[in-house]
Amino acid sequence: MAHGGFSDNDSDEMLSEINMVPLIDVMLVLLIVFIITVPVMKHAVNIDLPRASNEKELVKPETVRLSVDADGAYFWNERQLSDDSELQGLLAAAAAQVPQPDLHIRGDRAVRYERVAQAMAAAQQAGVKKIGFVTEPAAR
Asked: H helices then E strands: how many in the chain?
């Protein structure tokens, strides 16, 4: 009887290693399934995508400047408007142009926000799509 050798109770010990063969088999089966199904899924739906062109736009839209002074009066390209209905007519005419002009709104610092919001709402109702705000950078 040897003291450092094998004994009869060694067969009762648990193995602490993970058997990797079944995991590798499952992984290979999944890989084969994905290899087969990806080309089928790729051609399942035919979509006619729009074509984009990288040519420059030949006709540049004009820019309309709508200013609101401290008293709440509207100015269309530096020309004072008599009332709000005239603004509605000018905005509707601008919205009907092709290409539609860009509307740049400049609001005085002291004007009530309500007047600027009314101009934005009138532009939206008229169908103007491009509205921007002009601000001046803060003085340092």
From this structure: 3, 5
- Taking the C-alpha atoms of residue 72 and residue 83, their distance in angstroms, rounded to an integer, is 11
The answer to whether residues 75 and 69 touch, using CB atoms and an 8 Å cutoff, is: yes
CA distance 111 to 66: 14
H or E element: which one contains 61?
none
pLDDT, averaged in runs of 10, over the chain (140 residues): 53 76 93 84 68 74 91 94 92 92 92 92 94 83
Predicted TM-score (pTM) of the model is: 0.57
User: What is the rounded CA–CA span in Å between residue 57 and residue 66?
Assistant: 25
Distance of alpha carbon 66 from the chain centroid = 27
Question: What are the C-alpha distances in Å from 82 to residues 10, 101, 114?
Answer: 104, 22, 18
pLDDT value of position 135: 85
